[in-house]
Amino acid sequence: MNNRQKAELIFLEGVKSVLPEKLIRNHLSLTGPVLRIGNLSFREDELENIYVVGAGKASAAMAHYVENILKNRIAGGHVTVKYGHSCKLKRINVTEAGHPLPDENGFRATAAILDIAEKAKEKDLLLCLISGGGSALMSDLPEGLIPEELIIVNNLLIRCGASIHEINAVRKHLSGVKGGQLARTAWPATVVSLILSDVIGNDLDVIASGPTVADRSTFADALKVIEKYHLIPDLTEGVVRYIKEGVAGLRPETPKPDDPVFSKTRNILVGSNITALEACKRYATDSGFETYIMTDRMSGNTAEAANEIVKTALKYKNDSSMKKPVCLLYGGETTLRVEGTGTGGRNQHMALCAASMLKDTKGITFLAAGTDGTDGPTKVAGAVVDSDTNDIAFSSGHDPEKYITEFDSYNFFRKTGGHIVTGPTFTNVMDIVVVLIE
Prior knowledge:
By secondary structure, the protein is of the alpha/beta class. It has helices at about 5-15, 20-25, 60-70, 105-120, 135, 145-160, 165-170, 180-185, 220-230, 235-245, 275-285, 300-320, 345-355, 390-395, 400-405, 410-415; strands at about 30, 35, 40-45, 50-55, 75-80, 95, 125-130, 190-195, 265-270, 290-300, 325-330, 365-370, 380-385, 420, 430-435.
């Protein structure tokens, strides 16, 4: 087995550790008359109805295992997932919808979720299943706006280089469900959310735009973001007007931490990037590598992150006192500001940048992949490279630098090899980078 294969197995071990079956069974059980959710417990006779709603790439799979446990105790529900991430459910409706851009399916599913939340009464439980991708999948339309306007906003935000915190500050203020507003709609029902994090730092108010979490951002913050990234000329007049009306107090703000609606709301983190990294470390160590988790907060510009990781790998390789082989693990999510016309994603772009830097160095393997199994608008998780990548490319007439400049990493690896293909994993805890050093 070569190091490319070993790196992929290490990555896959991390993905396995955050699959919904394990996470749900660790945090939800029904034993006799007692329902346990995390550290919370409810007697069945305390609850009249249990409703299940959710959004995110993992929400259908999470709902499947919730159904296995709660069975006919579920009074109804609805979850929305990315196309291709669905599974058959018996008691909970599931809608496949657009991601990373919202679409009509997502708008309809979100309306159904809000209807369930409004129906919930004081003695009911609304169980929310939240995972990465939920911001696009749980989308509604602000008063006076049309779907195309919201799609334009999302497209501009994900391509401008803004952080997920900045992106979601805007999304929350163009919504009646995000930023704690689902919890406000369900009040006075009890709301418990099981949350799978795809956000650096695991900020619960940012994951899927925090539909059941008090919002720290404001309309003023949203306006600052669209001004900072010079988006106003490309936004519709209606969107800009809506945000400015919010700043002026003419639109209702998202609920803040002191809002009484959160007195019956609990948010439980069930899995995160560090969960996956720790599983990667165990597997790599058992496979004979001196293994180090470098960070679960990898962020910033994709190419710059690749450069820093390769520099660190070279330092470890050239350190004669360092026991080999070594495995370095990174987790998080970088930001790729697309300036070319090609096809790719941040992980493929990072791997391609790393390949360019490793062209004269033997003995370093670099894998970057998304735990959800998709990278950008492609159906691959990422890519793995080493010093042979450039040689293979040039021998077949492909200049890696050209593909980097055109942001066309997908087609580079399609033509030269190196893609990591998992299919939908039904989970999402950001990205993992595996570096193996001989």
